[in-house]
Amino acid sequence: MAVKLEEQLLEILACPCPEHAPLQVGTPTDPEADFLTCTACGRSFPVRDGIPVLLLDEAVAPPSAV
């Protein structure tokens, strides 16, 4: 199921990494995943019950960093 967040909210959300880059819905391999992915560092943040969990400790590292 794809993340359903208001467009205005997506515009202001940013990754907590030092770059504070914008986030995109889904992951690089699954655009329908319940994650928001940083456009700079590639970390994916879970969206639980419609709430983005923007904590670096909860992020999934990009496949190239594993």
Automatic annotation (TrEMBL):
InterPro entries per record: Trm112-like (IPR005651)
Entry's family note: Belongs to the UPF0434 family.
The protein, known as: UPF0434 protein SK854_12225
Organism encoding this protein: Lentzea sokolovensis
